[in-house]
Amino acid sequence: MSRAAQIFALVRTAVFTVIVPGVVAGYLPLRVIGRDGASPQGWSYIGVVPATIGLLIYAWTAFDFAWVGRGTPAPIDPPRRLVVRGLYRYVRNPMYVGVLLVIVGEAVMRRSWQTAEYALAVAVMFGALVILLEEPLLRSQLGPPIRTTVLRFLVGCRGVRHRLNEDPSQISLYERIFFPRGLASMTSVRAIT
Q1: Quick check: 64 and 72 in contact, CB under 8 A?
Q2: Which of the four pLDDT bands, split at 50, 70 and 90, describes residue 120?
Q3: What is d(CA 124, CA 103) in angstroms, rounded to the nearest whole number?
Q4: Which contiguous run of DSSP H or E holds residue 65?
Q5: Residue 97 exposure: Cα atoms within 13 Å on the Cβ side
Q6: Angle between the N-to-C axes of helices 113-128 and 94-110, in degrees from 0 to 180, rounded to the nearest 10
Q7: Is 87 helix (H, G, I), strand (E, B) or coil?
Q8: Position 183 pLDDT exceeds 90
Q9: Beta bridge mates, 21
């Protein structure tokens, strides 16, 4: 792909970001939902931490979608290549995590229960999108699943995908607690990392 095509993908990603995540994580919680909130003061400035981390996560993953995946986060213009670098090596949907962190940070900064409830609703919506739309679509597009573990929202399971064929005695206590039926029993599809 030429450099011009990659830059065009970045521009399309920027437009999508303003329209969708900008509305979901910016306009709605700040102008419509969180009317019970106040201006940040005192301890509430701690909300800057999750909001900033969320913005960085979103920017990083959106860049990877455009530069490496040659597409955008928009369902009508998805990446043409599988993105398995950066945060996508560790978490299946880091972009969703980033958006949620921004909303949670806003709720803390503004001390807004309505925005916190909105963050919970967005998390449920993201989960429903993954389970009801993304997974079936990917299964139909990618054919029979291969042994690539899908970790929906779990963080910190580095290398789990590579451990499916290992000796069961080598599985960590964490994995035994959270995956008692074994890692291979989890939902799997090809190329969703």
Answers
A1: no
A2: very high
A3: 14
A4: helix 48-67
A5: 17
A6: 170
A7: helix
A8: no
A9: none
Secondary structure of residue 135 in the 3-state scheme? helix
Find the DSSP H helices in the chain.
3-19, 21-22, 48-67, 94-110, 113-128, 135-142, 173-178
CA 87/CA 57 separation, integer angstroms: 8
Tell me the one-letter amino acid at 64: D
Matching residue, tokens 């607690």: 177
Helix runs in 20-110, H state only: 21-22, 48-67, 94-110
Residue written as token pair 């450099």 = 3
Q: Which residues pair with 143 in a beta bridge?
A: none
SS3 149: strand
State pLDDT tens for residues 89-102. 888 789 999 999 99
Residues 32 and 112 sit within 8 Å (Cβ to Cβ): no
